[in-house]
Specification:
Elements (H helix, E strand, L loop, with lengths): L21 H32 L15 H5 L1 H11 L4 H30 L22
Length: about 140
């Protein structure tokens, strides 16, 4: 036995991983649903307004969608995807919805990051050592 060690071994308790509070999971789930609903409704309003105002919307996105022939041979697939074929300008609504989802999701993530920066835990804990303040001379050749 050496001079600086003890005979008794210290048992280390396993650390629990930091779990998020359950309410944050619920808020995240609600945000996914709310942002999706807002995106769908904003896309419908935008496309309808654009068509009334004469915006140039690609003709490939306008009209009713047509499914491949094998969809019409299977009654189960027609029962599932049949209502989509009745929506006029479905592809325009879908493309605009995806754009709104990306923009609103990015804005909500940015807002959460700003709020977490103000409200969240401090960057350095009481046991952390501050970063070294090393100053070096500029390299001259």
């Amino acid at each position: 036995m050496t001079k600086y060690t003890t005979a008794a071994s210290r048992r280390e308790r396993p650390r629990k991983p930091r779990e998020t509070h359950p309410i944050w999971r619920g808020i995240g789930c609600l945000l996914v649903i709310i942002i999706t609903l807002i995106s769908i409704s904003a896309a419908k309003i935008t496309i309808d307004y654009g068509l009334k105002s004469g915006w140039t919307i690609p003709y490939q996105l306008l009209g009713n969608p047509r499914l491949p022939d094998y969809f019409y041979k299977a009654p189960a697939l027609i029962a599932i995807f049949g209502p989509i074929t009745r929506v006029t300008n479905f592809y325009a609504y879908l493309a605009t919805t995806i754009i709104y989802l990306i923009v609103l999701g990015g804005l909500s993530s940015f807002g959460y990051a700003v709020a977490y920066n103000f409200i969240g835990p401090p960057r350095w804990g009481p046991l952390d050592v501050p970063p070294p303040n090393i100053r070096t001379k500029r390299y001259k050749r």
